[in-house]
Amino acid sequence: MQVTETLSQGLKREFKVVLPATELEQRLNNELSTLKDRVKINGFRPGKVPVGHLRRVYGRSVMADVLQNAVNEANRRIVEDNSLKLAHEPQVQFPENQDEIEKAMDAKGDLAFTVALEVLPVFELADLSDVSVKKPVAEVTDGEINESLERMAKQNLTFEAKDGKAEQGDRVLVDFVGRIDGTEFEGGKGEDIRVELGSNTFIPGFEDQLVGVKAGDTKLVKVTFPTNYLAAHLAGKDAEFDVTVKAVEAPGELKIDDELAKGFGLDSLDALKDAIRSAIQRDFDAQSRRKVKKDLLDALDAKYSFELPPSLVEQEFAAVWGQVEGDMRSNNRTFEDEDTTEEQARADYRKIAERRVRLGLVLAQIGEKTDIKISDDEVTQALVERVRQYPGQEQQVWDFYRKNPQALAEIRAPLFEEKVVDQILSQVKVVDETVSKEALFGDDEAEEGDSKAESKPKAKGAKKSSKSE
């Protein structure tokens, strides 16, 4: 096997591999000699089948295996002999001339093929001694605990039937039929639906028009679906609902006491308050971590500039762009709504993809230099947490990850990234900065998610939660 480098340009490499006909013949005979001890052919004793006969019967199929093994060997030799780190799997190109391939299959002619590679960039790790990042720290206040207690108490409110008219805070039991342009639409019909007035859980304007109704009333409710309504065929449409009020219910007294705590499995109100404080603190710590990480990644991004493997950028951009388009479809938005064009949006999100790839390579090299490892126990623990997110489907989810190495790698990757981030944070200056809750969770669009060392792209019109996702 002759291997010759024919191209070395940036991160691209190409090698020409030649397998002489004599070598193909030898490899084929070796495989056939091994095969004769394993096959059974009528008229021949085990192990006594002539190689020539085996070649007539199995020659082509065995030669296919010979060529595949030769390709694998060539790829391995190229990588090992040149100490290459690949950005993706080698791309093998065989001759377009079918006659050459046919001759090679019969070991009557040389076989030459090209191996195209894309390698990872080589770069020096930057000095981080001058890097300083801010760590926002917010205190859990009694007011926030009381707000949580009130929400929990409202969730456990009991309602009792009342004879009077419905007021804000009351609950009405209704049947309804929705129509658009006089025609009923899918999902527009409901029976025995409880609507809490003032909860803002229904289409804007629906609850407001039920204030003042009483049991036995019928009401024509006119609303307009929001332009970003999840069901795109209803978004922005005017609709009418024929509503029949079956009952009006008034809320009972809002009680925040030991009995409320017992409803959540705790012994006392003080124990419930402690549990709430701990839960809020975990949210604050998680958000603080996201902010610190974002600040650190910004600092790292400013430290590095090197050529990126085009295949990795294209792969990352495809993932980013797919998510952007999905978000825009689900929110019924257009690029014009975002005050941009598709061309400009693609350019902006390609920069995000490039940043992700660059930071991913930096974190990978730092992790390699500092010998950071992820144990099987750590992966298993993370997988258990993932499985818990799918109640009732635990076994199926567990089996899926265990049978799919690539899916399991997606569990391992963020664990590795977080360990590397911890390693870097131990080397830079981290300054605590006391902030309010509003400041801690502000500007979430910039910090939403920290997958693959970068903010998760999201269409501007997409609905955001009060905390990072």
Describe what this molecule looks like in 3D.
There is one protein chain. By secondary structure, the chain is an alpha+beta fold. It has three domains: 2-118, Trigger factor ribosome-binding domain (Alpha-Beta Plaits, 2-Layer Sandwich); 158-251, Chitinase A, domain 3 (Roll), CATH 3.10.50.40; 284-453, Trigger factor, C-terminal domain (Trigger factor, domain 2). Helix content is 45%, strand content 19%. It is built from 13 helices and eleven strands. α9 (376-387) runs antiparallel to α10. It is elongated and about 100 Å long. The two termini are 54 Å apart. Mean pLDDT is 88; it is low at 445-451 and 455-469.
Fill in the keyword field for this structure.
Trigger factor, domain 2; 469 residues; Chitinase A, domain 3; disordered C terminus; alpha+beta; Alpha-Beta Plaits
